Each structure stands twice: as structure tokens, then as C-alpha cells.
Amino acid sequence: MVRTASVSLYIGSTHRASAPRLPSDIDFYIVVDFDKTIDGVVMLEITPLGFGHRNKRVGFEQSREKNKAQTRMYIVYMGSYPKDLESTKLPHTNNTDITGITALRIKTKLHTDMLQAVLGRELASEALLHSYQSFNGFVANITEKEAAKLRGLDGVVSVIPNTIEKPQTTISWDFLGFPVNVIRSPTESDLVVGVLDTGAWPEHPSFDGSQFGPIPIGWRGSCLDPTFSCNNKLIGANYFRASGRFGVHDSVSPRDTNGHGTHCASIAVGNVVGPASLFGYGSGTARGGAPLARLAVYKVCWELGCDTADILAGYDTAIADGVHILSVSVGPSSLQSFPNAYFEDVHAIGSFHAMQRGILTSKAAGNLGSQPKTIPNTAPWLLTVAASTTPRTFTTEVRLGDGNKYQSVSVNTFDLGNTMYPLIYGGDIPNRAEGWTPDQSRLCYENSLDKVLARGKIVLCDDYLGPQTVGFVSGAVGAIFRSSGSLVVADVFALPAAHVNNQDGNQIYSYLKSTSNPTATILRSLEGRDSNAPYVAPFSSRGPNRITPDLLQPDITAPGVHILAAWPKDEAPLSGVWGDDRESYFNIMSGTSQACPHVTAVATYLKSFNPDWSPAAIKSAIMTTANPLRAAHAPSGDAEFGYGAGQLSPIQALNPGLVYDADQNDYVEFLCGQGYDTATLRIITGDGSTCTQGNRGLVWDLNLPTFTYSTTLSTTFNVLFHRSVTIVGPDTYPSSYRATLATYPSTLRIQVVPNELVFTSANQKLPFTVQIEGYITSDMVSTSLVWSDGIHTVRSPIVVYVRS
Q: Which of 23, 271, 329, 332 is most deeply buried (CB count within 10 A of its CB)?
């Protein structure tokens, strides 16, 4: 019996500048490099629904009719592949790896067979969207009932609904005491940093490869998209879109049309470029913290957001390509989408398999503000980065017709020439024709105002939801936003704009309402200095850890406010508002997204001098050498739950003295103690991992450079932490380290046993315990343990708090 099907096919470029808008009756669209051959035969691999493989891109309009309306994307995670299927790539070559293709086909068949057990043969291949290659898992379009059936199959660790996440430097490196002429290892150029984000703009000087040597031996990635030119600096690029859905401004390639990925990548590894500024603001020399390192970008975020299925594909491919450090400035946009278990979290899954291969993942803590438990990252094998302020400030003066002046925050590059314009309240001019009410128009949402009444005026708006939300404020000359929120972060707007505090905003409102012809103007911003920096940014998410309360989160703090870095000059609008046609090679942004690549760079810097250090050793060196912060540095009063071990200190991290090391076995013992069984852990690790009575590790025994205990108020407790430290670096032996404790309340008793460690050889590991007993009478008590030999200071926070 011969079965036939009729489909429509489009082959060609999908770069937004050259591709036609695809009609709805197109069933497939493909971009393929016909030069990629094996023995003269053109190789064309069609993968359903999008995960573009290098420059091969496939979009698939679903034809599945059964339960079509109820289907959605799910990630089916099954741990590690059998050892004989793990490797699917050979080092970078112009020829396709036939072994890799065969292994990938076998993996795909394994996943198709699993789906057939639930869906039947005809629906299985259609439902399968993508097979991961570095770990065992796939993406499928299925119903909730079908997902439940898959959860019950042997070998399945978790079935995770796809959710949508979002993307979360002239002065910052100097502020950290990391000058441009710092000593560097020649092996830095052998390291590849993988950035999961919105892609990159390859034409930017920050990514110029003309001064770099050949691509490092062992690199297995490539950059074959015809619209994206890599070089010896930017050596890898890929993109992922399982859903096949794209926004009108998306480039179906690794090219960055958002700007976020370019900005973050340049903070980590950007070349030294100067002069750099945003129309004169933030002027100086832009550079990444590891400018000699190579870059590979994995575009997982699009105009419509960042699907978790795509994010996991980014981890998957980066691991297979052979990156050395991963930087991820992406996370959930709401508390409701936070995962409830480690292996229901794509970041925990991806970073675990990266850790298995010696790759450290640096991950942004998130921008969900100063409330407790707002950090989505919970896994102890990744490095969670909070954001702190820099000394740089931007103030914008608002002048009213009555002569009063008010200081606000924004990065206002526009010059109104001191011209006074009519001032009007947004709540008085709703766009009633399109159904907007005064209660909505007062917030100045894009299109919420009557454009005729807003034109030629400055609009006063209540509250503030971000530059992209308000857009061009319905054609107004400018906008003044009043809110009770923090006035720390200055944003770039698409029009002259100012952000005032509620008190000043109320006075402006009173003037507007009491004057027959109120007027105002907005001046260009002035750059200033914040002498109180660093302190935790108000937007930076806070701990404690939601899944395991006795693990400290975040781990570290780094600059994340008013960071000037690279920008796609003619690809992405500076304000994030399409139609904002200003162009600049650099832009100013704030977020834990900007803090994260600072730590990524330092991790890369450390690895260049210490190639054999594990991810945990690098993490420990960064944390134990951080500059201590005090409760005053976290204005909301959350201390270590705001800033972790403290402020990043790159130079000190290079010579930590001691490190708290850990490997997969340590994390397996931790997971055994968290309730995972032998069968599940063997699936995850792909080896003979076993949970026994002897290795069910208590959370207090995981070898982290922090000590955290949650309790209840005024309740007596007694907890024992087991730790070990390894001596690293050029020391003379024997080398003696003594323990000291910072002050703490008299209701507690803390003992370190032994209180002196004597190392007699290089890389020696010695154990110790910390016992804490007593009770606390406040919500949180923090102190610290310091090991010192008189030269090195190895500091670890100790936190006891009341759990909620």
C-alpha cells in the first residue's frame, strides 16, 4: 500500500530583511546549506517543528486533528543517554559527522517509539518536535492526558509543560577593581563562553575576530546560518524555536533583533572597544571581563518570549558543542511559573548535565523584586547571581510653568530646548473609541490615550510599568511617570520621559489641576555618582531557597544597574519600542541579566588559570573571596538573601587559598537526602548511582561555602554541618589555616572543629564541622566563618532564619 500526501514547500532565507511573509498554506519552510555534503551527496535533515540545526531550519504546521485544540508542548525528560549514545559530535569540521547523525537518528527513534506507546504510530512522529542530544529527552505536542501517561512510563523522570520565560560597561569592571591591564592567562583564548539569550549582532566591534588566532582545538560547534557571519571571536551560533511561531520583528536566525543577548554577551567576553557611550552618556572604554575568550550564542528568546523547550535545547547544544562556561540571563516572568522540583526545572536539568561535563552555569537571579522566595533558581550546582548598584546615576529635571523643578530618574537623550509644552493628565484623556477607561489611561499604556488630545503635550502618568509598556505614549511630546516604587534604575525611553517619586508626582498633579494652562518641559539627563554603591538593586530577586530552605540563595552579587554594553546598532530599538529609530553601538541597561555575565566572565578568568578546577571549585573561589556586604546594603532588610556571599571581587577570586569542592557524587548524595531514589538517579546520571542509608546526605552536609539553617522563633535547635576544604594555589607546606567567627547573638553557640587545619601537601582536602545550637529571637541572624593563613581570607556566610 502506497500512502501519499500533498504539501506546500518554501525553500529560502528567512532573515526578516529578505524573506517573504509566508502564506498560511505553507506546510514546511526550510533553509539549507547545499554545500554541506558527505562524499558529494547533499545532506538534508528535516526535523519537525523548528529546532534549527545550524542553518537548517524547519517549521511545521501541525496537521494532527485528534485533540488538536487540547495539545501543548511538553518536555519529556529521561536523564542521561546510554553511554554508547552520549557522543553525537566530533570536533569542529567542515564535514558532517556521520556517526553523530546515526546516533541522533537512534535517539529520535527511541523517542518516537515511546510516543507510539501512548499515541500510536501515525500520531507519534507528528507529535515529536525535537530530540535532545546531550541528555535523554524530547519535546512533543501532546494533551494533558497523554502527558500523564508518559509520566507513568519506565525511564521517565519528569514531563514538564512548556512555559514562557523572558530575558532577565565602561564603569563596572573598574568599580570591581578589575582594570583593563589585569594579568591574563594565554589560555583564556582557548575557552568558549556559551550565552543563552536573544542571539547576537555579529557585526559589532565587541565581537570582531580579526585579532584572534584559529578556533580552539576540540570545539564541536559551528556557525552555518547564511545570514550570520561568525569569525575567530564569535565561533558558534544556533537558534531554537520548537513552536514555529515568530513575531513580526524576529529574524529566523541567531541574529539579535532584541539587543539583550548582544548586551549580555559583550559584558562577559566583549573586546576592548572605545570610545563607547550612549549619545555621550556612560562614556569610556567598553570591555568584557574575559575579552580574550571566544563566544558561542544560542538564541532561545524571541519576540514572543523564551520557551522552556527552546531553553533546554540551548543547554543541550551548548554542552554538545563543547563550551566551557554557560551564561544564562533568562528566567520565569512570574512566581506562578516557578518549578516545584529540581528536575521539573529546565535550568536545573541543563546545568546538571553541564556540571557532569565540567561546565559551570552562571544564572541570573531574576528581577521579581524584594519579596522573599522570588528567586527561581534552587539547584546548588549552578551559580545564582543577584544585582547590585554601580556608582553611576542619571537624573532628569522636570520644570513646570510655575517655576518649580523636580529631579527624576531616566536616561533622557532627547533635548526639548527648554520649550514649555501643555501638561495633561493621562486619566483625563482615555481612548474611549477603542474601549479604554480613565483607570487604564492614567497608566499610559500604549494606545490607551486619545492621540488627538495627547499630541503636542507632556502627559502625567500614574505608576510605571516600563518603557515597552508605554511605548510612544500615544504620540505625546513627553511623559512624566509618578510612582511609589524605587527611583534607583533609570530607563531609556522612546520619547522624552522622567520618573518621579510619588510625593513630587502629587505636587505636579496638584499644579496641573489648579492651573488653567499648565505647562512643563523635560531636560536632558545629567550623569552623576552614587557614593552609597554597591547595594542590592530593588528589582533583584531574593531568597531563601523555595525548594530546599537550608540552601542559601542567591550565591553572589555583581553590578547590574546602569551597565553600558554593546547593542545591535541598526537591528534593535534602544528603548525596546519598535519605531524608536535612534541608533547606537552601545546601550544602558539594568537587571540581574547584566549582573550574571560579570560573574560568567570572572568564572572564565579563573578557569583560564586553573583549567582543572571543577564548577564547584570555581563557584567556591568566587563566593569565599567576595567583598562582604552588610544588612544596610540590602535596603529591604534581607541581608544575605539579597546579596548572598557578597559583592564579586575578581582579583581576590584568582587566589582563594581554599575551596569547597564538590562533584556529581556529592550532588547525588544530596538528592538522595531530598527523596530521590536509586532508580531515578541512575536514569538522571546515566551511571550506577545508588542511594543507601550511608549516603543519604543531609542538606547540611553538601559541601557548599555557606551555612544556612531554617527554624522557628525562640525554638531551641542543634544542627551539625560537615564540610571539607581543599588547598589550592602556590603555597609552602605545611600551611596552617585558623578559623574565626564574626559576632553573633548570645542565644547561639557556634563551634568549629577543628579550629585549625594544617595542610602538608598541594591539593590536600581536610574535613571540619560547624555546630550551631541555641535559638533566635529575630527573623534572621547572620554571621560568618573565616579561615585564614594570614594571607588568604576564606569567608563563608552563616545564616539562621525563621522559615515561613
A: 329
- For residue 361, give every residue at least 6 positions away whose Cβ sits within 8 Å of its Cβ, in sequence order, or none: 325, 326, 327, 328, 347, 350, 351, 354, 355, 381, 382, 383, 615
Q: Are residues 213 and 334 both part of a single domain?
A: yes
- Which cell numbers in the block locate residue 18? 529578505
CA 747 to chain centroid: 40
What are the C-alpha distances in Å from 697 to residues 19, 547, 702, 721, 722?
Answer: 56, 16, 7, 11, 10
49 shares a domain with 196: no
587 and 446 share a domain? Answer: no
State residue 636's pLDDT score. 64
Residues 470 and 599 reside in one and the same domain: no
User: Any residues with CB less than 8 A from the CB of 69 and at least 6 apart, and which?
Assistant: none
For helices 678-685 and 664-673, angle between their N-to-C axes, nearest 10 degrees: 150
Question: In terms of Cα–Cα distance, which of 261, 109, 271 is closest to 194?
Answer: 261
779, 737 contact by CB (below 8 A): no
Task: Give residue 731's pLDDT.
Answer: 77
pLDDT of residue 310: 98
Inter-CA distances, 570 with 256, 304, 428, 576, Å: 10, 20, 37, 13
d(CA 554, CA 542) in angstroms, rounded, equals: 7
Question: Is residue 671 one of the residues assigned to a domain?
Answer: no
Please give the pLDDT value at position 695: 80
Per-run averaged pLDDT (10 residues), the chain, 804 residues: 39 37 37 34 33 33 53 96 67 48 80 92 90 95 96 95 85 90 95 98 98 96 89 98 96 97 98 96 96 98 97 98 98 90 97 98 95 96 98 97 97 96 98 96 92 96 85 92 86 95 96 96 97 93 96 98 97 94 97 98 98 98 94 74 97 98 97 95 94 87 98 97 94 93 98 98 98 97 97 98 93
Do residue 223 and residue 331 come from a single domain?
yes
Q: Is the dihedral of CA 720, 721, 722, 726 positive or negative?
A: negative
Residue 659 CA to residue 657 CA, distance in Å, equals: 7
CB 318 within 8 A of CB 178: no
Domain-located, residue 41: yes
Domain that holds residue 481: 401-529
Burial of 682 from C-beta contacts in 10 A (0-12 / 13-18 / 19+): middle
Kindly state the cell numbers that stand for 41.
Answer: 551527496
Question: From CA 606, how far away is CA 619, in angstroms rounded?
Answer: 10
Closest by CA to 588, choosing from 300, 260, 269, 272, is 260
Indicate which residues carry an active-site annotation. Answer: 197, 260, 593
Q: CA-to-CA distance for 543 and 372, rounded, in angstroms? A: 6
Tell me, what's the pLDDT at 344?
96
For residues 16 and 106, membership in a common domain is answered with yes
Domain boundary (127, 143, 164) is at 164
Claim to verify: residue 263 and residue 296 sit in the same structural domain: yes
Contact 719, 771 (CB under 8 A): yes
Three-state DSSP class for residue 215: coil
Contact 492, 574 (CB under 8 A): yes
Side-chain-facing half-sphere of 56: CA atoms under 13 Å? 15
CA distance 603 to 647: 14
The three cell numbers locating residue 618: 570555581
Residue 483: which H helix or E strand, with range? Answer: strand 478-483
- Pick from 740, 109, 684, 619: which is nearest to 342 by CA? 684
Say if 356 falls within a structural domain: yes
Spatial distance between the Cα atoms of 307 and 530, rounded to a whole number of angstroms: 37
Of 164, 197, 215, the residue at which a domain comes to its end is 164
**Letter for the amino acid at 17?**
A
Q: Do 453 and 355 belong to one domain?
A: no
> How many Cβ atoms sit within 10 Å of the Cβ of residue 528?
11
User: In this structure, what C-alpha cell is assigned to residue 304?
Assistant: 514572543
